[in-house]
Every structure is written in structure tokens, then in C-alpha cells.
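Hi support team,

I'm opening this ticket because the web form for multi-chain structure prediction keeps timing out on my end. I have pasted the exact lines I submitted so you can reproduce it. The total is 646 residues across two entries, so I didn't expect it to be a heavy job. Is there a limit I'm missing, or should I split the entries? Thanks in advance, R.K.
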Amino acid sequence: MSRPAVELVGITKRFGDVVAVDDLDLTVGDGEFFSLLGPSGCGKTTTLRMIAGFEYPTEGTLKIHGEEMGLRPPNERPVNTVFQSYALFPHMTVADNVAFGLQMRKVPSAEIEARVKRVLDQVQLRHRADAKPSQLSGGQRQRVALARALVNEPEVLLLDEPLGALDLKLRQNMQVELKELQNRVGITFIYVTHDQEEALTMSDRIGVMDEGKLLQVGTPEEIYERPRSRFVADFIGDINLITATVSGPDRVRLGNGQEIEVRSPGPVGEEVTLALRPERLELYDLDEPMPENHTKLRGKVIRRMYYGDAYFYDVEVGLDHPLEVKEENRPDVETYDMGEETVVCWDPAAVNVVTD
Amino acid sequence: MVAESVDLETRAERAESRRGLLIGLPTYLYLILFFAVPLVIVLVYSFATRTRTGSTALSDWNLDSWARVFQGPALEVSIRSLILAAVTTLLSLVLSYPFAYWIATRPARLRAILLVLVMIPFWSNFLVRTYAMKFLMGSEGPLSLISQLFGGPPVRILFTQWAVLIGLVYGYMPFMILPLYAALERMDWSLVEAARDLYASGWTAFRKVTLPLSMPGVVAGSVLVFIPALGAYVTPAILGGGRTPLLGDYIVQQFLQARNWPYGAALSMAVMVVMLIATVFYFRKGGRTL
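Hello R.K., no limit was hit. The queue was backed up. Here is the completed structure from your submission:
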């Protein structure tokens, strides 16, 4: 990681008795696209608001490019925010909205005009420069909000669920646009979202939060493939969580008594949770040849759901919950009917042992 | 088939508008009887002639009363009233805005309590409250006593224009606070955060965002204070002692003392027209800032 853009050390925010953010340590690198991901009320927005300067931390230090910022008012910080509700000034035109930050910083008016035009070109809204925000569509407002922040060339851009109000197709387009924009301008993005897909597709790194705590920080692959806790595993994507007891080195015993192979599950006798992605599981006919070193559980299909690009099966294997299996919808992948006997099969390396 | 459906639609729309009329009917009747009819009577009287004995002759129509509206003592009284009403409005605005802002930014439950407190004065009679103000401001009143207690001079403001101003501001302030509060309460505070985020200081954010967006409240409050202040009668009569006549006193004088009903009626109509024009202008201007 290059020199840090934002550093939070021991940041805590309390509202009365409520601890919104709890002893949070986080370093975001320069030029990084970093997402804070978590359910609503997890403290991700409060964290963002502290970086922006709308809330002051109760404890801890907050530095932007090495400079202490914790108690500085928002107008004296080298960051800009794209708000969840866009917060466009309804009494000003698009161009005036975008020019606002530059005017406040007393940039010469000729330069303001040029920069506003350039940024409106970037977001393809030059032709709407004289419109009022109320005359724009949701996607256009979103782009004005983005332009209004970017025109100031902030060192760090903070985005609070900026795509939340858009419909699915538009949101997916904007995800691509945002990522490309970030590559182009090279500004550090700190992106708050509760949408795991958004976080996975756009981020260089993700921090998963719950109940004011930062649970895990890592690349999208690390977060998805190697979740460390039950919460992270469960929050991101679909996952099977299986309770088991460690019965030896690389062995655990499942609830149905069967022993299976798991890489370094922990001390013998300890109860552990195994996390398994549905797409890492495969279904086989009972008499079909199967990969040799894979774990195999015999079961029965109790539900099949069609997702267009894939089938999801619930397979009853005698554990607390049926296992969810995702099989791609391809001509060479066999489909199973409800009630059919089958074998669920997986590579032991695909299993993650997570803490509670 | 098409023609028939158009016909059905027209009939449905007519039925709808008949129902609308029915709902509004009691109000229409009330307003016509007690508002429109008296207004027409006043208008008719303004063109009549005062007889030598002080009664009104409804036979001899002329514009004499209207000709006297914009000259002599009437003009002087009008200007004084306009200035007083303007100062009252301005003072109410300056005093009410911070308070309305403060209420609007409190937690919801406290806001409700504070609003009730603002409205409490309405629960007692305006006349009684004005007499209470008279007592407060009198040279033997509490204000004066407190001043003297600290070695100051006795307060002599009763029966001055200052007393009238204080009384008017006191009386009409809730009409300023409530619309201001209503405007500030539905304010989207993330806009202020956005302004702060875009390098505006607290004061600049207020000037560029909060104030323009609360203009509808400023306009409504100003109209609600300015109009009754311009026609105020009770407050100037009690607190001003009638020494410097204002429009309200002056018009009452025409009816009761001078017994010149046509002139009083013409003055009343003129004030109404001025207020109407001012209101329309003000709302248009206020509306544009949105």
C-alpha cells in the first residue's frame, strides 16, 4: 500500500449510551477504492460522517494525509461527499450546484466556468447545466452530485450509498462508470454500502462492519473466499454454515456423526462452524464416478429453484439445515428433480472455518 | 362506442364538480353573507355623500371621499402607519427567525412542547394582554421599578410610538414564528451539510442555503404580521394613548367622531387595495426564490 490517505486509530463514537462506532482502526491507501460494507445501523455511515466532519469522534485520532482532522469543521477538510439523497441545492441550477464549492474557495470565475463545463462533460450533463435538480431524473441527479464533489478535486471522495436510490440496471451501469471514473481521476474513494455485490465488484478492498466494529478488511476475493467470522460469511453472498466438532488434525465430526476432512480446523474437541459457498458444492448421481479426495455427503433434493443462469438446490443430508447447492445452467450440467437421491460433493480446500 | 364513452366521462366529471360545490357550499354562503356583502356595502358608501347633520346620503354619488384619501392628514397618517408596520414586521422577523430556527432543530418531542408555548398567549384575550402590557410599561410598572431599583431613571415609554411598536411586535410575533418554523422544520438539513462539505462556513451555508430555502416562511410570516400591524387599532389606542393617530384610529375617528362614513369607507377600501397589491407582489417575489 502506498502512503495512507485516511488513517483512523481507535475511533469511537458514542451518541449518549449508544456506541455507534467502537474502537475502529482503519487505514485507507492513496488512490484506493475502499468500501465500508455492513447492514444498516452498523456504524459505516457514522464512520464516513466522521471522516467528512459532520460528526466528531468521541475518542481516537483521525488523519487525512498525515494531518490530524478529527475535530476540524467539514469546510476545512480536503474531502468531498456524495450524499445518499444527493442533497442537491433545489434553488440552484445544475451549473450553480457544481460551481458552489469552487465559488466558496474563491476560484476565479473564468476558471470556475471552465472546470464546471469540463466536469459536466465528464458526467454527460453539459446539456442540462441550466436545469433545476427537480427537473432531472434520479440517475442525472446522482451524476450532478458526483460532479459537484469531483469538480473540487478532493484528496478523498466520500460516497454514502450513492447508488441506493437507483433502479437495478442504472445501478449496474453506474457501478461500472464509477469504477472507471475512479481509475481515471486517481482519487481515493471511500464508499459506504449495504449492497455486497456493489462492494465486491467495485472495491480494491472492503471493510465489513457490524454493530460498530470493523470485523474484517481485505480484497473482495479475501472477503468472499476467506471470511473469518460467521457474520462476514453470512452477510456476503449465499453460504452454508455447518456446525461441527474437531475430531483430529484435519478432521471434524458433523452433526450426523460423519467425519469429514477440513484443513486445520483447530484444537480437538472444539466446536467450529464450517462455511461453504453453494457454488463450491456439486451434485452427483449415486452411481456416478466422483473426484477421489472430495468430501461426499449423501442426501435427497427437497427443493429446486430456477434463477435463469443457475439452479439452486436444497439437499437434505441429515444436518441441522439442508445444504444449498448452486449449479450453473449449462447443457453439460445435469439437473435434479425434487425427491431425487444424490451425493453432495466438495473439495476440502473450499471449506472455511469461521469464528462466531 | 367512442362517443358514448366520452359522454360518460363528461357526465362523471360534472357529477364530481357538483359534489365539490356541495362540500364548499356552507363556506361560500358564510363568506358571501358576512364578508362579501359588508365589503360591497363599504364600497357603496365610499361613493356616497355626508350630509350636514353627519348622516349619509345614498342618493348623491361622487368621488369626493376618494379624492381626499391621498392628501393632507390622511397621507401623513398613512405614511406613519406604513413605517410602523414595516418596522414591526422587520423587528418581528429578526427576533423570530433565530427562535424558529432553534425550535426546528430541537428533538421532535421538545419541538411540540415549544410550539405549544408559542401559542399559549392566544389562550387569553388580546385586549387583556394589551392592558397587561400597558401596566408593564407604565412609569409605576415593574419595568420602571426594576430600573429604579438599580439606580436608573423611571421608564417613560408608555404612550409613545415605542410602546406601540413593542406592543405590536409582542402581539404578532407568533404569526411570524409559526410560518418560519413550518418552513425550517421541513428543511432538508443534509443540504446544509452539503454546503459545509463544499467549503462554506456555518454562516455562509446559512446565507446560501438555509435562508433562501426558508423564504416562503419569511414571506408568509411578514404578510401575516404586516397586514394586521398596518390596520392595528387596539394596540395604538391603548399603548399609544391616541396621541399620534395611525390608520386604524384615523378610520375609526371618521366613523365615530367625524361621522363621515363615506370618507371612512373610502379610506378602508384604499388600505385594502394597498394591502392586496403588496401581498400579491410579496408572494410573487417570495415564490420566485424557490
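A quick check on our side: DSSP finds eight helices and 20 strands in chain A. Let us know if the file doesn't open in your viewer.
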